[in-house]
């Protein structure tokens, strides 16, 4: 439902470069991808985010041409590539395990695609080294893949997939084979290189941090469908469902019934809280309907004194506290028994004299901190 | 300094693990070969054993005598050289045929679904459940002038007079390829089945058509399997005795038959031993070196990865 709304909204986007319409993939009696609609803009890094088995990899493989779509259409730069075999698509992929050819040197790996194109030898040499320079691997051109570290292999794989100057670059879990320590650094580096080259890129990942670090926009997938699509900031701040709210970052989910519904605000009676919820955006749901509200842990303010106002606060007791360095993660058991999480920056923590376990505290939040979820 | 403990005198675990196969090879390969080598330098004589001793105590002196008759004859009588070359030729052609027939078979099996794969593999291994002798006899029955093949072709009216295959080189080739094909398929299959198919996808992705990807990715990566299989076909084919004896003509010159003739027809043990030794040295030494080199390369690759 949100898919079609999204598609209609962007039908006339002049920057639209990749369009996926009603794409379906069925394996036997398993529906891996159910009617996906997607538009990606030129030079955008777009992330498909979801847990394993959500269909994101199948979608990527259909974009690469390794899987034939059961129905639907893929347009790239105004051209229908749905039925084009992988070797004729202007699309290159960086594989999850890199899939470097083990019997070839780094140079031969990167040159492979150009040789297939029939580019003449001098140009191949120039372009291969240009690509290797870009990823700072020119000094390793004579090595075989097994003589390289994971990070180096990844850069060679990137050079190999960029050297043909594809219209669309696909990244399949680009960081999954790397150690955790170098992951974040590599994410930023990779995003920089992609920016520098100016290539449209669709990446698949199960790691929300990776998607948020690298992507301009992302789509959250589950059960073969896109459930929400937008910039990382938007999706994080305004998740449209409990699934997305829980998948992107952690959140506190509250359940209540709508008692006031105005265009610019709603009030929600919530048995789990001391005071009703006041949310500064309208919803188009009937009064008395049960809804879910998401409040991010970093939006909760912890205090020792009772907040002013009749909305948006609750009383409780610290049930657990974890010191994370730059912030502290509090678990607060509200009077209703509901446990909420609040992350408190270290600076603020000092100001309120760091409440310990079993101390009584108040949590409060602003009207624009809570989001009513559609489902 | 501490006195050496008992442990220092004990062989290490590694030595213990290597010892049984090492002893096995020494006892049943090296020692027999040295015996054959010894006999090859002896002189033919009547008696038991039918050859002279290498060392003799005579006139208060130990006399060593190395008789080179066998080797001299081997290099002067062109028949031996021709036989040797012909054996190599037949083994080489057999190997090439096995590669051409076996590669598609191994490839097909390796790319089948696991359930189908096991059935097909069983089909490759099944002939081993019957003795080679019986299977070669079956080929006699098929290839003879009044055999199954000719009866079938004549019955269908394709030919009017029987094809003369039995007792020709062609029959030997058929027998050799038939008998050794599984030895080629199995190692190649083992290689192909563990190949990472994503490499092929990567090749398609980079613009290679399926046959180009096959030629530039699958074939080079399956080289170790092809080499292992080819050696398993080539080496025993050179010395093969049963198949040329049963299917070949009188003029089918092969090493195995010459050895048999020297031993059992001429009772010339030294000559037969010389034939054997030359064959082993000329054939196995280069192959052993090749294999050693191959293993070293693989180990270098593995070491670099670690």
Secondary structure: elements and pairs:
The complex is a heterodimer of chains A (375) and B (306).
Chain A (H helix, E strand, L loop, with lengths): L1 H8 L6 E12 L2 E12 L3 E5 L6 H9 L6 E6 L2 E2 L10 E4 L11 H12 L3 H14 L15 H13 L5 E5 L7 H18 L2 E6 L2 H7 L2 E6 L2 E6 L1 H6 L4 H6 L4 E11 L2 E5 L7 E3 L10 E6 L5 E3 L9 E11 L3 E8 L4 E7 H6 L8 E5 L5 E4 L2
Parallel strand pairs in A: 3-8, 3-9, 6-7, 7-8
Antiparallel strand pairs in A: 1-2, 1-4, 4-5, 9-10, 11-12, 11-14, 12-13, 14-20, 15-19, 16-17, 16-19, 17-18
Helix pairs in contact in A: 3-4, 3-5, 4-5
Chain B lengths: L5 H4 L3 H28 L14 E4 L2 E4 L4 H8 L1 H34 L2 H12 L6 H12 L4 H8 L13 H25 L4 H8 L4 H12 L1 H16 L3 H6 L7 H11 L3 H37 L1
Antiparallel strand pairs in B: 1-2
Give the tally of β-strands of chain A. 20
User: What is the rounded Rg of chain A?
Assistant: 25 Å
How would a crystallographer describe the biggest sheet of chain A?
6 strands, mixed
Helix content of chain B: over 70%
- What class would the helix/strand composition of chain B place it in? mainly alpha
Q: How confident is the prediction overall: mean pLDDT of chain A?
A: 89
Order of helical and strand elements of chain B: HHEEHHHHHHHHHHHH
Could you explain the architecture of this structure?
The complex is a heterodimer of chains A (375) and B (306). With 375 residues, chain A is of the alpha+beta class. Chain A is built from ten helices and 20 strands. In chain A, a hairpin with a 4-residue loop joins β17 (327-334) and β18 (339-345). In chain A, α3 packs across α4 (121-134) and α4 (121-134) packs across α5. Chain A starts with a helix and ends with a strand. Chain B is flat. The longest helix of chain B has 37 residues, at 269-305. A two-stranded antiparallel ribbon of chain B has the order 1-2. The chains are: A alpha+beta (375), B mainly alpha (306). The interface between A and B is medium-sized, with 27 and 20 residues.
